[in-house]
From TrEMBL:
It comes from the Bacteria. The gene is potA. GO terms for cellular component: ATP-binding cassette (ABC) transporter complex. GO terms for molecular function: ABC-type polyamine transporter activity; ATP binding; ATP hydrolysis activity. Its EC number is 7.6.2.11. This is Spermidine/putrescine import ATP-binding protein PotA. The keyword ATP-binding applies. Belongs to the ABC transporter superfamily. Spermidine/putrescine importer (TC 3.A.1.11.1) family. GO terms for biological process: putrescine transport. It comes from Methylobacterium terricola.
Length: 256
C-alpha cells in the first residue's frame, strides 16, 4: 500500500488505513407500512469496492444510513471489521461518509473544513493541521487549505468533502450518490479520482448510485436493489452475462 500524502516523519492519512470487512445480516427497516430494507444480507470483503445500485426508493440510502449508524434497523446485525456495530453510534464505527450534498461549512477555510472531524475528536491543533494537509494532498488539493469553499469549483469542493471523510483514517468509506450533482465531465473526473483513492488507501468503499454505468465501471461487485431486497450481487461481467432475473437484466440492459 502506498503512503500517499505522508509527510516525512509526520502523520500520514494512510498509515493506519486498512479496509475493514463488512457483514450485513438480515437487515430490515420499516417506515410505517413501507419496508424500506427487507432482510438484506451482504458480505463485503476488506478493501472491496462495492456499489449499491437501484432505482429511486429501492432502499439504497437506508442501507447506507444503517451502516453509518445514523439510522437504526428494526432487525438484523451489522459487523464492521468483525465487531458488532449494530447499536454503536456513528462516531464509534470508524467510517467516513460523503453525501450527495457535500455541504462544506462556508465560513471555514478549506483546511478547517477538512480538519473539522479531528477537532470533534479532540485532536490538537498542530496534528490537525498536518493531517488536514496530508488529506488534501491525497485528493490533489495541496496548497488550497487557506481558501474558502466559495473560491473552489464544484469538483474541488467535492474533493474537499472527500478529504474530510478520510482525514481520520476510517476503515470504511460510505458514499451516497456523491457525484450526481456534478456535470458529466466533472463526474467522470471524480470517478477516476475515487478509484485512485480506493487503490491507494486500501479502504473498503460502499458506493450508492442509481447510475448503472457508474456502478459497473467503478465497483468490484455490484449489488442490485429493488424494493428493499437484493436482486443479485456480482461483478459487472456476471451481471451482463448472467443476470439473475428479469429485473436485473432489464435494469442493466437499460444502460445506454
Ligand atoms: P433510495 O436511496 O434507493 O432512493 P431510500 O432508502 O431513501 O431509497 O428509501 C427507501 C424507501 O423508504 C422509500 O419508499 C422511502 O420513501 C422510504 N423512506 C426512507 N426514509 C424514510 C423516512 N425517514 N421516513 C419515511 N419513509 C422513508
Ligand atoms: Mg437515496
Amino acid at each position: 500500500m502506498l503512503a500517499i500524502g505522508a509527510i516525512a516523519g509526520g502523520p500520514s492519512v494512510t498509515a493506519a488505513t486498512t479496509g475493514a470487512a463488512i457483514s450485513v445480516r438480515g437487515l430490515t427497516r420499516r417506515f410505517g407500512a413501507v419496508v424500506a430494507v427487507d432482510d438484506v444480507s451482504l458480505e463485503i470483503a476488506a478493501g472491496e469496492f462495492i456499489a449499491l445500485l437501484g432505482p429511486s426508493g429501492s432502499g439504497k440510502s437506508t442501507v447506507l444510513m444503517s451502516l453509518a449508524g445514523f439510522d437504526l434497523p428494526d432487525a438484523g446485525r451489522i459487523l464492521i471489521g468483525g465487531e458488532d456495530c449494530t447499536h454503536l453510534p456513528p462516531h464509534r464505527r470508524n467510517i467516513g461518509m460523503v453525501f450527495q450534498n457535500y455541504t462544506l461549512f462556508p465560513h471555514l477555510s478549506v483546511a478547517d473544513n477538512v480538519a473539522f472531524p479531528l477537532k470533534m475528536r479532540g485532536i490538537g491543533r498542530a496534528e490537525r493541521r498536518a493531517r488536514a494537509e496530508a488529506a488534501l494532498e491525497v485528493v490533489r488539493l495541496s496548497g488550497f487549505g487557506a481558501r474558502m469553499p466559495r473560491q473552489l469549483s464544484g469538483g474541488q469542493q467535492q474533493r474537499v468533502a472527500l478529504a474530510r471523510a478520510i482525514v481520520y483514517r476510517p476503515r470504511v468509506l460510505l458514499m451516497d450518490e456523491p457525484l450526481s450533482a456534478l456535470d458529466k465531465n466533472l463526474r467522470e473526473e471524480m470517478q477516476i479520482e475515487i478509484k485512485r483513492l480506493h487503490s491507494e488507501l486500501g479502504i473498503t468503499i460502499v458506493f450508492v448510485t442509481h447510475d448503472q454505468g457508474e456502478a459497473l465501471t467503478m465497483a468490484d461487485r455490484v449489488a442490485i436493489l429493488r424494493a428493499g431486497r437484493v436482486q443479485q450481487i456480482a461483478p459487472a461481467r456476471t451481471l451482463y452475462e448472467r443476470p439473475a432475473n428479469l429485473f436485473a437484466a432489464g435494469f442493466i440492459g437499460d444502460m445506454n
